[in-house]
Amino acid sequence: MQATIAYYDPPRRPAPDARPDFTALPLTSRPVTVGNMRAAGGGFTLDREGFTLVTAPTAVGDFYDPGEVAGRYVAEARDLVRALTGCAATALLNSPVIRVSGRAGPRPAGTTFTGDFAHADFSAAAAVAMLERNLPQAEAAARMLSRFCVLNVWRTFSGPPQDVPLALCDVRSVAPPDKQYCEITMKTAMGDLLTWENIAYYHNQAHRWWYCPDMTRDEAYVFRSFDSAPGHAEQVPHSAFVSDSCPPSAPPRASIEVRVFAFFAD
């Protein structure tokens, strides 16, 4: 599919130690080719491309019900990560996030906007800081002695087709100069302000983008936000994009994402 994805495009590159405000970045839309994961026959892996598509039925009836999501879906996501990676243990990084396409008009309470430009949610430094924030000091220190990673479990629950699907970029097509480290400050579920480092991306024609059309609520992407293992450090750039092939009668895309720590025994 031919599409456009917005990239970071400042008048000049910031100084190496600068951290632009992630919520106010200058962006320019660029034409890209987004490959069809279904047509490619699958085979996408966390180790190679940095992402995969899985069949993962869910028992959640109402994703807009915070109690049901917290009581049922978080456990499903953690079980999925454990089964997919063979990790020894998991922990929740943050509360589930529900995003709704801008075509929906006013968003339902508790939801937020789609991420409509090439970005990654965490830098390596932020992943370590999140681990230290979320776990007791002694446990965090012990976990960092072995491999750990952060995985995003992303699912659309509005049904196919998706007007604003999510595209994922093959980590092997990303070069270090493509990255711009940024800073974002947001409110936590408890109402506290939390600041961390994340990444926007400059355009590079070498980037290889992929998406899965017509995702169902029983499918999910799992993609890498951080991995401490050598050779696995690259985060997966991702971005929502407008699907011109989607009929106007399609429901606005609604999705849920859960970020999960995976801890390995060695």
How many helices? Answer: 3
CATH topology: Jelly Rolls
Stretches where pLDDT is under 50 for at least 5 consecutive residues are none
Biggest beta-sheet profile: 6 strands, antiparallel
Helix and strand run: EEEHEEEHHEEEEEEEE
> By helix and strand content, what is the structural category?
alpha+beta
Described by the principal axes of the CA atoms, the overall outline is globular
GO molecular function: oxidoreductase activity
Region (Disordered): 1-20
Organism: Trebonia kvetii
Protein name: Methyltransferase
Descriptive report:
By secondary structure, the protein is α+β, with helices and mostly antiparallel strands. It has one domain (2-263): Jelly Rolls. It contains three helices and 14 strands. The strands form three sheets. Strands 3, 4, 5, 7, 12 and 14 form a six-stranded antiparallel β-sheet that branches. A five-stranded mixed β-sheet has the order 1-2-11-8-13, with no helix packed on it. A three-stranded antiparallel β-sheet has the order 6-10-9, with helices on one face. A hairpin with a 5-residue loop joins strand 9 (179-187) and strand 10 (193-201). The protein is globular, with a radius of gyration of 18 Å. The model has no long low-confidence stretch (mean pLDDT 94).
Task: Sum this structure up briefly.
GO terms for molecular function: oxidoreductase activity. This is Methyltransferase. By secondary structure, this protein is an alpha+beta fold.
